[in-house]
Write a structure and sequence with these properties.
Number of helices: 7
Distance between the termini: 20 Å
Shape: elongated
Structural class: mainly alpha
Number of domains: 1
Order of helices and strands: HHEEEHHHHH
Strand content: 5-15%
Number of strands: 3
């Protein structure tokens, strides 16, 4: 019970930041989903303009169900936009679509953090799922090495959240630059795009903080298991 209590105390800052960040993202997206962008372009049209301007005409743009499920798939080279973004001409849709197009631009340029993040995805998935289990299994059966193996695996997941920060920040930077370069936003639109993308950036900061604090707690447990 004491260990559980300490865990929640340690991760509390990350949890609170996550709640605040999610609230900001949803609030800004909802607000600017009601504001039509000055160019009158849907999310799909926005990302198509950016991709074509970068010579990425072969990258298809698909729609996926859900909200804020937008992503670029570097493995299959497909840009996927959620339903509230794909066919909607709001400022929020434009911001999200441009951001995802930014990831495609990163892959074209051989952006190192994106390549590294893509390379460790399998290990990060394993680490996030098995790290915790191996840690406590090692504690229960009294094998310190097994506990530290679990910590090591979870550390890979934490590294993934860390390298995600420059990847996401850079994609937003590219998105804002392209929207301005192509003349797709006026001053009011540009300010709104900043608010939408800057709020989203905090969710990645919160994810890293939560993972890093959890890792510190797991390291403490593994040390005590000796």
């Amino acid at each position: 019970m004491v260990l559980v209590s300490w865990y929640f105390i340690i991760i509390l800052p990350g949890f609170l930041l996550s709640m605040w960040a999610q609230s900001k993202v949803k609030g800004n997206f909802a607000k600017y989903s009601q504001v039509r962008n000055s160019a009158g372009l849907t999310g799909e049209q926005t990302s198509r303009r950016i991709l074509d301007n970068e010579g990425l005409n072969s990258i298809p743009i698909e729609t996926v169900p859900g909200a804020l499920t937008d992503h670029y798939d570097p493995k299959n080279k497909v840009l996927r936009l959620s339903q509230p973004v794909y066919g909607v001409d709001s400022v929020a849709a434009m911001a999200v679509a441009a951001h995802e197009a930014g990831h495609a631009m990163q892959q074209k340029d051989g952006y190192a953090p994106l390549k590294f993040r893509s390379a460790i995805v399998p290990l990060a998935n394993i680490g996030s799922k098995l790290g915790f289990m191996l840690l406590f299994l090692g504690i229960i059966i009294g094998i310190s090495g097994l506990s530290w193996l679990g910590v090591g695996l979870f550390a890979i997941a934490t590294i993934f959240t860390l390298v995600t920060l420059p990847v996401e920040f850079d994609a937003s930077r590219r998105a804002k630059a392209e929207l301005n370069r192509l003349g797709l936003v006026d001053r009011t639109d540009a300010e709104a795009v900043d608010k939408v993308l800057d709020a989203a950036a905090w969710t990645y900061v919160a994810a890293f903080l939560t993972s890093a604090l959890s890792l510190l707690y797991y390291m403490r447990l593994a040390s005590r298991s000796r």
